[in-house]
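Predict structure. Input: Small-conductance mechanosensitive channel, 510 residues.
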Amino acid sequence: MLQLWETAVGYFWRPELPWALGFTFGLGLLLLRFLRADRRVIINSLELYVFCLLGKFVSAVLEAFGLHSGAEIVHEIFVLGSGLIMIHLTGLLLFRLTFPLIRLRTPRIIEDLLIFVGYIAWVLVRLRLAGMDLASLVTTSALITAVVAFSMQDTLGNTMGGLLLQLESSLKIGDWISIGSVSGRISEIRWRYTAVETRDGETVVFPNSVLMKNPFTVISSPGQRQPEWRRWLWFNVHCSIPPGRVIEIAVAAVTAADIANVAKEPEPGCVLMEFGSGFGRYALRYWLVDPGPDSPTDSAVRMCLFAALQRAEIEFAITEHSVHMVIDSQQRREQSQARDRQRRQAVLRSVDLFSGLTEGELAILAEGLTYTPFANGEVIIRQGVAGDSLYLLAEGEVDVWIEGPAQSRRHVATLEPGEVFGEIGMMTGEPRRATLIARSYAQCYRLDQANFEQVIRSRPEIAEEIARIVATRERELARFQEDHLGRASTEVSLRAQSILGKMRAFFGFR
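Output follows.
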């Protein structure tokens, strides 16, 4: 029994085994230390190596019992497996650890192919050492090779396709591409396939041969200059509206609005593309900085354009096929107009600036109100620009900003529904003192100077009360523009007298 044990140990513990053990487990521990992302792969490789060691020991036991042929076959099988594992770990050392340390980035497909070549070379070496004539093997197996190559033509096509894509730099990891109905970012390029992550979180796998045979569009690349991707927004407007006006309104709306992910340079543009049946077809073109959130950005631009055209009282030309019959009458029109006047008067009545007006005077102002919606991010009033109208906020929120030197600005306040702004410029002719930007979709009513003047001239004494209210609002704004305040009561009183004097001079009454 002792002699059998000594024979088995002698057969198992060959001179090269300590070196192989030290290399494999030393390399495995080194990779476990630095390649935490590949720990599972490394551990699996070491477990397989231990299994190969057990297989070699089984071959040693067979040798001890005199089964020489079986022992050699089993030994060669597990030696072959051990070598493949060592080649795999060496590949991880080179491509995942050493090359990144020297800032040498190799495509994943190159790593796969070179390791595969290493596997083939090791198999051929073991066959040669086993006494097999490789030349005769290749000669006699030509038919088998042809059959295998024919059966694996798709696999070979995918492998060659992936290699060519990498060598030509047609595609890189991180590129945004569109192929057929699928668009997304390339997450992985392997020897057989290319994986694309869509915006919906799905991973679509394309065989490399498909990419080689079909056209695809590279939307953007990590190395590409900004902005990334130009978008087209199509809309129709009736031919009765001058195209120059439509283009000017569309471009101004998107350029002035603070819409996230829309590039400022190159500037947005709008072109008249063609004429349809009674309408002109326009394309609003703008650039996305990031192609990822394309749909939310497009939606924000559409809302901005929609609000801008509504303010200009321009409607989209939309083909409708439904038939809607309404029996109109003078009574129905009067009822609709009465409801609209009541709604406008309710908005005016909620504003402290017009609290001293009678119902008749509110009715006069209500007739002059114009519905003016603003999309999120649109500039309603710009600091330093002359204005002849004020705005009443019915729904939504508006941010107040003070513009400073070197294009800096500071947030002052956020206006809520029921508040009025822009009154100083309308009543005194002074330039706007702050910039107001819609924080959300803001529904406003605009009151022009001519309608307000009609009420002031009919009852001039009301100007004094309005001047006092405006002065109080001015003092609140001054807190953000000055480092210190004087006596509040005197300040408001003096400011009210100043505003009242400017109103009288501006509207021409005593």
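The radius of gyration is 40 Å.
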